Amino acid sequence: MPKDIKIMIAMHKPYRAAQDDIYYPVHVGALGKEDFQVKAAHDIMPDSRGDNISAKNPNFCELTGLYYMWKNVSSDYLGLSHYRRYFAQGKNKDKWKMIAGRQAIEKGLQGADVILPQKRNYFIETNYSQYVHAHHEIDLKMTRKIIKKKYPEFLPKYDESMKRTYGHRFNMFVMRRDIADEYCSWLFDILFELERHLDISDYSVNDARVFGFVSERLLDPWIETVGLDYKEMPVVFMEDVNWLKKGGDFLKRKFIGK
Fold first, then answer.
1. SS3 for 85?
2. Which of 6, 11, 214, 219 would bridge with 75, disulfide CB 3.0–4.6 Å?
């Protein structure tokens, strides 16, 4: 019998979507916005229904969709992808044919608790310094204080992760539902506490997405502290990425500053 897998596609505008039946498009930041439709195996769901934090989307990014799925949609497995980023299988000139479907995801879950994207390596930056050069150091300092106070058992792995040059990014995963429930409870508790203590009134529009950025740095410490087995899958980007420009911006932030 097929597993009940629901992988959210975070979308904020009409865009081509994966067609496999494990993918569920979610309109993130839907509160006060016009509904839109996309061609997919399931109708798009606005993240503004039921128990939701849709209004926080400018600061929480795709996490408003994750919160909606966590609180309102039942499943055996819960996952998160993006309209421009998916887990990938094989190689193909047509990127849309590279998106991991049910068979690939189910295979990935065999013998593993979680599927994560392949690690991203900054080589000349630690996870901490890369964040600080791109955003605000206080974000991570405040996060550490909260973890130390509320979840001290996670602090060693958090500190260890901050010193590495690599980590799992993009807020992408597929987890067994009971594991996802535990993760979301922990994650949103920390982020809501961070929201209460962090003054972002002077942040740029990009830096104001702080809670989405910080959450990317919390997944590894949680996975490692809980002691979960995971498998990695490559990520396919649906739009061309100017890696030369991204690399140049990365070096400018490191040696010149924001």
1. strand
2. 6
